[in-house]
Amino acid sequence: MPKHSEHIKYSILELASMGVGSTPADTFSKSLDLAQKAEEMGYTRFWLAEHHNMVSIASSATSVLIGHIAGGTKTLRVGSGGIMLPNHSPLIVAEQFGTLGSLYPGRIDLGLGRAPGTDQATAHAIRSDRARSVVAFPDEVAQIQKYFSRENKTAQVRASVAEGVEVPIYILGSSTDSAHLAAKMGLPYAFASHFAPAQLFEAFHIYHNNFQPSAFLKEPYTIACINVIAANTDHEAERLSTSLIKMMYGVLTNNIDYMQPPEEMNAELKALSGYEAFQRMLKYAFVGSKATVQQKTNDFIEATGIDEVMVASHIFHHEDRIKSYQIFSEIMKDRK
């Protein structure tokens, strides 16, 4: 693994989580407030994830929400973590992000993944030929690049609002397949280690060893995502983490519900968090005080050699979530 700089960038992955009793409007308002505060805290980018048919996540119309966040901030990079490309036409993606790139020059990122971001029935409702599109993912990424190129102005099919607009493309992944693609195309690579950590190191090894420099990127660039719940004390962070435990239990049992308020850790929740499936999914969930999260984060950065760390924080109360991101920003600033 290559040596990394001490000046690691730090960013946010936002799922616009819906707490019980909240509305989408409430959630979008809080997402914008978080983005504005993140800008002040020194976060580099604010990415929104695409999920569908999940009452607990409101970021389904991802490109629309990106425009909302970018319009309410000044310097923060805003993008997709990611757009699940098999759900969409490459032409429409190019038109949407070309438009965003013109509205907010130099601030829009396009992260592309191939997972459905939902269940199979919903995936079919989104795009009935999705299975073919999954196989065609590399070609569709290349097609989007073509739509963004100035050379495409002579083509029969154009995304004229995208031509010549600078919107960097990132390959997202949770397996080694994506690592091979990102390396071959010479694109930056973001790994979903916040929920699928099993192949993290193997994927990064493949990416670094097979990376081919491109017009977009001369050297490999890696981002890894972690879960962070930081508070003033380990006990308080553990209490806040009960919302995440209950949410993940709903995911694992296919009984997805609104995020629930935190409660004191009890024997039942402790037992749940100890199950192998939980441990496997949440290997990189750093819960605790500033000192605790700092140690875990530093160990993670040293082990992975990443260029950038991206943080997801599933915390019920908005004020507690802001506090957690504030603590994490202090941790990252202390590294410099």
TrEMBL record:
* Coiled coil regions in record: none
GO-annotated molecular function = oxidoreductase activity, acting on paired donors, with incorporation or reduction of molecular oxygen
Cellular component terms (Gene Ontology): cytosol
- Domain named Luciferase-like is located at 22-307
InterPro entries, from UniProt?
Bact_Lucif_Oxidored (IPR050766), CmoO-like (IPR019949), Luciferase-like_dom (IPR011251), Luciferase-like_sf (IPR036661)
Instruction: Give the highest taxon in the source lineage.
Output: Bacteria
User: SUPFAM superfamilies attached here?
Assistant: Bacterial luciferase-like (SSF51679)
Give start-end of the signal peptide: none
Q: Which CDD domains match?
A: Flavin_utilizing_monoxygenases
What the record says about family reads: To bacterial alkanal monooxygenase alpha and beta chains.
Protein name in UniProt:
Luciferase-like monooxygenase
Q: Which organism is it from?
A: Roseivirga echinicomitans
